[in-house]
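Structure, all two chains, one model.
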Amino acid sequence: MHRTYYTLITGASEGLGKALAIECASRKMNLILVALPDSGLRELANFIHKNFMTEVIFFEKDLSIASSCYDLFSAIKNLNLQVQVLINNAGIGGTQLFSEGRPDVYEKQINLNVLATTIITRLFLHSLEKNTPSYILNVGSMASFFSLPKKQVYGGTKSYILSFSKSLRKELKRDNIFVSVLCPGGINTNLPVTMLNKSGTWLSQISVMNPEDVAPIAITGLLKGKEVIIPGTINNFYMFLDKVLPEKIKIILTNYTMTKLKTDNYYTRFLLQHFPGNTHQNNAA
Amino acid sequence: MKIFITGATGYIGNKLALTLADRGNTIHALVRANATAGFLQHPNIIPFQGSLDDRLSIRKAIQGCEQVYHVAGFAKLWARDRNSFYETNVTGTVNVLAEALECGVKKVVYTSSCAVFGPSVKEPLCESDPRITAFCNDYDLSKYIAECRVKEYARSGLFVVIVNPSRVYGPGIPTRSNYITEMIKRCIRGKLVLLPNAKGILANYAFIDDVVEGHILAMQKGISGERYILGGENVSYHRVFSDIKNEIKNAKLIAIPQKILKALSWIEIIKNKCTGSEPAFTPSVIERFFRDAALSSKKAIIQLDYQITPFREGIQQTIINLKMNSHA
């Protein structure tokens, strides 16, 4: 009997997750999409189904709550859906001084970025083993490599993702499961982040990419079995600089970029005015 | 009835103001000090000097009005200060809505744009479809943020309906947003017109009279907090070519490949950086020309009784009107 395989994408309603969903659909992959309730997931699922004619199933879950990860797994198991590609994309971004952030927000960020990725990968491992060759794509960040000020917790979670993915890749290779980690720089994911990206220095602005440009690179890399996927010429150039520049200059450069991320300019004031309470906690790198 | 209108010296707003004035309404038009108020010659139109960043001027003009059409927007590709897009389109809109709420206005129609939707894939886009590309210019983004704020006002009790006109064409004030009509005008005069060589690419063209009527219908029958696409036919560039050529036999239309247009647009950008002149087109606009942007006005047709003039007919009417005016 012909089996229908699915690609599971978390955090699929916006930004990179949405772009990954559309990219996979354009490659005729069937989708299971997961995102927060009331995030427009139903509309996205309808849109993808009517435009790409692939199967799209969606679940509205807050994966920062560990029990939701287990609920998601049992719901998919009950429907007997075969997951062949797992994309752990859901994540909470953030740029602020450690002292400015609330502890409960850090807890949520770690729960989603670290815990949910780990639990979901473990839960779906069996399904991936059955449906080989299968693929896991974890979404890290350029912050996985660099210890940037104002990105302590976020960078920490993304370093975990990098380390976790590279280890897992070594374990699962013999089972024909390919693990990749995507490490993008800034992406115009949602409205506040797009606005915030405009307020960075030119050094960070020129590296900002659109999700629809990152997604094809990510999926191509994943299906080729690439270990670390870094999208964009500028980001790759930064990685190259990291290898060749002396430590002292790198410190000056990162400090320059971060201190210039002004807390008071037109865009940050605009954000406060039009997106109150939403400036520091966003689903982005 | 007393009606407050912003953008009455612009392409859509002007035709809307004149239409409503003709139907016996008293129009309070917010007009900037330097605007050409000559377009507002009508016994029922009262110009109020002011601007969107001056809430007091809005309040003076809005007082006693039952309805508000907020049509004004910063509709350009480029601005010396890019904050202008956000100041006019977002903060200006919030100012109008806040005053409308405070002054007890019964209903508001907000003119958004189809620029918020982005490209289509296979099916024409409808109001609930997600945008599949990031916002690539400040105009589109500012109009989208404004829509978000309008929906907030709708949730907090203001009766406000959003309309999204597509590429509007037809007789009217020559402005940037009326570029198709400007193009036809050049054809009539026998001047050279450059078009993107994107023959099969679809775009949606709305006839000005339909859009104006659509605004009035949205005010009468629209549901608060909802948005309605006011479009026309989805037409390929190939048909735009052939329909214009059919009417104007000696039209000099030349299709330019994407790469050349892109290169030209970068030259425009460099010119802009050196001289500060407004670019005729930008790379992001060129990219948009080469992607399908088909839209469905079904919701407006069903819920508002919106009507679409066929593209061919709209073009014919536009040409007749342009020829009449050039002889006058």
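The mean pLDDT of chain B is 92.
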